[in-house]
Amino acid sequence: MTLPEGLTPGVWTLDMSHSEVGFSVRHAGISKVRGRFNEASAEARVRASLADASLHATVKTASFDSGDANRDNHVRGADFFDVEKYPEMTFRATGIRGDGEDYVLTGDLTIRDVTKPVDLEVEFTGVAVDPFGATRAGFSAEADISRKEFGLTWNAALEAGGLLVSDKVKISVEAAMVKQADAS
């Protein structure tokens, strides 16, 4: 599987200051609530063939931020992420298919010690050298998951029927990866 134009073999790491790991979930059946994680890391090892590449990412669950302190504390608590017991979520790629700019990255997502396979729809957005000489690659990725499959089952019934928090969660990632200097 050929590498996308501009992506070269080597080790690439996530630049979190130029990236975002977030999600959205339907609330009360009428609106979407968005959240993000402010601490994450990722390392991709790109080989001559994209099929031989590897990716491992870690997200610190305590870094959850939705802009509402009460909600954030609830989501960090035992009803959802239980950050004291499960301080990290991880994703480890197991395969990739596609070409050009559009790919499907398959991997194992672990939340609350529950691991499930997930397909991320990935768009490769290009490679550029920044003014400081760093080579950067950009990616956008999305996936839909069932939060219940990961043990995130808390909910509340609505007076008019239905539930407060939907089961479907849309994960979204905007990633800037920086190529590391070859270790000689």
From TrEMBL:
The protein in question is named YceI family protein
* A Pfam family matched in the record: YceI
Which residues does the UniProt record annotate as the domain Lipid/polyisoprenoid-binding YceI-like?
11-178
Spell out the family assignment given in the record's similarity comment: Belongs to the UPF0312 family.
Annotated source species = Arthrobacter humicola
